[in-house]
Design the sequence.
DNA sequence: ATTGACCTTATAGTAGCTTTATAGTTTTAA
DNA sequence: TTAAAACTATAAAGCTACTATAAGGTCAAT
């Protein structure tokens, strides 16, 4: 299987595959005589694992960490679960921050109707005055 | 006022100030004979405006846009409000996406207690199987 | 023979800074 | 007075996770 087929199979771009290889996330495949990469089905599974981790918002470093656990399959999996717990709490704090931000933005927006000149715009005034008791 | 004092006043690093100047967000100040930048109070206000916009999650490009409106104070402020509306809807869609992600992560996490070997870890199995019916 | 689709590597660009390197200037302490 | 500490300057690289571009080699079909 060449790189284009693998890319289509998993739904990524070929450059992304080369990038993962370069980053040490995907093992380097064998090469044909002409230098073309030849992938196995196992590569497809590895790549799909990486993509699903990315969809879950894990960083490449975190994926690397998960892979290192997989290399040692008889260890207890507490570290895996801890990684996920950390990620969940990270996502939750992002949500909280964004919700606070939304509130702030909506209240700022409410300070202006559209029928003013820039000079008198409530939004710009709100930002400039800086009564942003955030955090 | 030199760059260090301005930085302390507004609560940013000196490099950030130089960066904003380079990006055209902060007007270049006068220089002393030795080349040191000399800032006015007005620079402090401009910089504070930029920082508050950043805290609100606006991109440098959006800040640039707001500044261009401020340069033309007798235009109607509809564009300012539209920019904020766009940003609010952007923030809202981020929140929605993160909430869906959190759900997915929590359910994945529930598939494993800590008392297993990596080989049998429910979390890793969940990612590998890829029954992630997302989006 | 040449077009088109595919593959290769290397390099630069994205956002918003932060870090590092190297060097000159000013202030302060001994 | 001098030497160190603290400040300033510029330029360039690093960060994340790719994406895009350039310049070229390979292969099948026409």
Sequence:
């Amino acid at each position: 299987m060449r790189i284009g087929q693998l890319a289509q199979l998993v739904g990524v771009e070929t450059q992304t595959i080369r990038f993962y290889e370069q980053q040490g996330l995907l093992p380097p495949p064998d090469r044909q005589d002409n230098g073309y990469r030849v992938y196995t089905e196992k590569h497809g599974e590895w790549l799909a694992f990486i993509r699903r981790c990315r969809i879950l918002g894990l960083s490449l470093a975190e994926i690397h960490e998960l892979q290192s656990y997989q290399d040692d399959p008889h260890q207890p999996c507490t570290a895996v679960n801890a990684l996920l717990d950390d990620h969940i709490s990270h996502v939750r704090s992002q949500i909280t921050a964004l919700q606070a931000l939304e509130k702030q933005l909506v209240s700022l927006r409410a300070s202006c109707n559209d029928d003013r000149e820039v000079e008198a715009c409530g939004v710009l005034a709100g930002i400039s005055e800086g009564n942003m008791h955030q955090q």
Notes: The CA atoms of residues 107 and 123 of chain A lie 9 Å apart. The first strand of chain A starts at residue 30 and ends at 31.
